[in-house]
User: What shape does this take?
Amino acid sequence: MKKKKVEFSSHTGNLAPMRRFVRKFLDAYPFSERERMLMVLGVDEACTNIIRHAYHLRDDQLISLSLEGLRHCVRMRLRDYGKQTEAHAMKGRSHDLIRPGGLGLHLIRTAFDKVDYILKARGTELVMTKNLEKAA
Assistant: This one.
């Protein structure tokens, strides 16, 4: 099992290095270029949602990202300590509405095979799993 972890503040300037970190981790696995790109974008979108919704654009709050390479899957755990949103309240907008925003959850659910929101005593843990069997 391969494991990597990075912690960073909720400043948007940290998103590009985080994307490179995820990309480098994923390069060791037999995913297609499209699958890698979608997973990197999905994690980026999840971080953006944390910054926007859990931390209300504060740039000094902790985000923790753990990456695990397991026998049959890759699992990414994204942890925040901000305002919680109940999982049932997180709804992306309809695909056919032409306006900005609201497609991030669709992107995350498209990029990963399983997406779980775990409400903690403080904050939320988002667990995103991509199966290796489906990799091209």
Observations:
- The chain has one domain: 2-131.
- The mean pLDDT is 89.
- The beta strands are 2-9, 62-69, 73-80, 114-119, 124-131.
- The CA atoms of residues 18 and 44 lie 8 Å apart.
